[in-house]
Prior knowledge:
By secondary structure, the protein is an alpha/beta fold.
Amino acid sequence: MNPKGNINRREFLAPAAAGLALTLVPRHVLGGPGYVPPSDKITLAYIGCGTQGTREMLRLIATPGVQITAVCDPVKDGTNYIDWDKNGIRDSVRRVLEDPNWDAGVSGIRAGRDMAKEIIETYYAKKRASENFKGVASYADFRELLEKEKDLDAVKIMTPDHLHATISIAAMKKGKHVLMHKPLANRVAEVRMVVESARKTGVATHLLAWHRPINDVRDMIQEGVIGTLKEVHNWTDRPFWPQVLSLPTDRPPVPAGFDWDLWLGPSLERPYHPSYTHAVFRGWYEFGGGSIADMGNYSLWPIFMALDLPVPYSIEAQGSSSCEINDQVSTVKMNDFAFPYANRLCFKFAAHGQWPAIKLYWYDGGMRPYTPDELLEDGKSIPATGSLFVGDRGMILNDEIIPAKKMRAYRASKGIPEPKGEPGRRRRGFATDNEWLAAFKGGPASQGNFLNAANCSETIALAGAAIRYSRKIFNENHCAPALLWDRESMKFTNIADANQYLTREYRDGWKLTSA
């Protein structure tokens, strides 16, 4: 990415990863088993230092091939974060830093760029003292970081959804590899721009929702064990956050050390309110993508990969309703700003390649398929989260044929030993850092790259648009029809009014374009 004659350390990493550079001194001589010389490390900026960012950072700082050299967050140091455990973050930091008294006396749940800097520098001083680490740079604005951190290989993006496209595209334009939390973006147009930027720049990318392919499920379906595949059902128990269905009207002050303008980023100006931020941002159309963007990237993406799914041609959304009483009259409450408590969607895919026409159903907010008779035969009910593949001669729940006797017979016919552990636990597990780290050093692209994520990511963003349109027009006499999608023209062909939800209205100075 640099002009000829201006080659820096970054540009030596790719040939080294490809095995073209000679190792003159064994690594165990230099620094012990697992030692990675500083010149071979990926230098990474950590953008987004909230609770989830901190949680993942605690694992990343122990990765030998990565050196975090900068952190960025609009929050300097706050204690008003929301998490799933009052002391979970604090206790995790204490274990990693081997300091049982870390943050003693601090009340609330703490996070922010100052805390991230403190954790990284403390850990490196303890564990990497021989590397002469120079410290971590700290920024409130990612744009300043990308301008000043010249010798940077990659960024990891752990911000709310509405900033993903803006930050990742800016980084890719600078030639930085991008590691990002899901989703790619929460607007269809922005998903397209992120994918196009990855394609044009050629940088290595990895969406952290990728965990593993479901090749075993694909193989069973291709072998005909459930007949012809007709439907796939996928569901989650989210949301795990309060789903606010009214715009806040009170005006609390912006917390000290919180740059609200930078947190808004490309979004139009609005007064600060804590109901928009931290762990509750996912419930707002502007800032999040709802439960399907939160968990669908994990569970739907392997399905897309296994079945070679394109983008659907039809999306029908149904959402839960709520009511309000005004002047003694109870009416259905409308909104165009927040996701419903619960949703279900039907995506339709035309026949493609070796696969027939398929319907894919999504459920959230406690909704899920009813327990099939095949599962009742085993004395079980449908799990709180999962995937169900329905053929004309059988079913696969997650990666097990049901009822269990059919799965045992299948394994016996293939000479496959019975696995140990519960099926749900066996199915979990995420790609290791080795996959994206090798890609960032010039090796093969990770399976979790942005191009592989494109179809699933666009479908999830389409779901957000369909949910929003469906909820906006719902009343007792009028429900939204399925939206018909033309991928080439990037528009819904039957309901023009729904197309407004494919894009974002940007603040001045924040308009987004692909690389």
